[in-house]
């Protein structure tokens, strides 16, 4: 993740100790992460796909989920054992994902148990199922924030989500969370369609008082492979990033603190740095130091983020489910994660010497780390 509000506008957020090694004032930011010595020494933020079942049919779904029951998913006792291990392993955060995690019957039991074990818990959801009662249960379960997935405004979102009315229901879900004092993180995957809606998205963020926005670059995984023609061209990407930066700066200048980030493209950090070199060289130097501490792809998949899928398979990240390092039914996640006998895991743990071609010779290698996967 590249924190535009942090890097471009010099604002502080709860993830600064984890992402940039910076101490924050816990009185002003009470939910801040614990400090870590280095990005390489971090335990992984763990994405856990607790069910593959979903009530929507998104055209870019990396897990290729459908509205049906899938056999072989981890049962309740197996899931509790996973949480025990993750707590002992001291992961910084557990992100319950899917499919649609709210469709798993024991979700609230699992979330509550994780919270009671001291794990920072988050949910990634399409938000269409969040009634006022569900929002109250999320609050009671100790969920830190709700990551609500949208891919545009109105019909644009409904087309990508594969169901009419999905936008309206998601907005109601977001409102129910806000009414129950639950922080919202909006998540969008950038494509040719919503790349034209950046201003509308930011207007929506202001209108609904959303605290955090993550703009994901399209990952060619699951059904995302089938819509590669929807991906932004390099120039379209630059145009979109420029507009996101402009609107982020406007928010900061107006005193509206929002955490705006891009995801799955560490080269965005280099692009931001080069922009700052022209606008504010002094600030650019500080940003370079933060990006180099973070390391980009060097400390991402297989290091700072990991994934457990529906069946207990462990992956380097949630978009890379075609390769498994092991299964939590056979070995603990913590043991699998620290085992570098697998050449791929060993390579991810020490990635820079393996980079070749343009990435191997790039002067910004310490910032970008070879980018995503």
Q: What does this protein structure show overall?
A:
It is built from 15 helices and 10 strands. With 373 residues, the protein is an alpha/beta fold. A hairpin with a 5-residue loop joins strand 9 and strand 10 (314-315). Helix 5 packs across helix 7 (166-179) and helix 10 (267-279) packs antiparallel against helix 11 (281-294). The longest helix has 20 residues, at 234-253. It starts with a strand and ends in a 5-residue tail after the last helix.
Characteristic key phrases:
single chain, 373 residues, alpha/beta, globular, 10-stranded mixed β-sheet
Instruction: Tell me the overall shape.
Output: globular
Number of helices: 15
Q: Helical percent range? A: 25-40%
Briefly note the structural class of the backbone: alpha/beta
Measured by DSSP, the beta-strand proportion falls in 5-15%
Mean pLDDT: 91
Radius of gyration: 20 Å
Order of helices and strands: EHHEHEHEHEHHEHEHEHHEEHHHH
- Assembly of the depicted chains: single chain
Count of distinct strands: 10
Terminus-to-terminus distance:
13 Å
User: Major β-sheet, in short?
Assistant: 10 strands, mixed
Give the strand line-up of the largest sheet.
Answer: 1-8-7-6-5-4-3-2-9-10
Low-confidence stretches: none
Secondary structure elements and pairings:
Blueprint: E1 2-3, H1 4-9, H2 16-20, E2 45-49, H3 76-89, E3 94-97, H4 107-116, E4 121-125, H5 132-140, E5 143-149, H6 155-161, H7 166-179, E6 183-190, H8 198-208, E7 212-217, H9 234-253, E8 259-263, H10 267-279, H11 281-294, E9 305-308, E10 314-315, H12 333-338, H13 343-349, H14 357-361, H15 365-368
Parallel strand pairs: 2-3, 2-9, 3-4, 4-5, 5-6, 6-7, 7-8
Antiparallel strand pairs: 1-8, 9-10
Helix pairs in contact: 5-7, 10-11
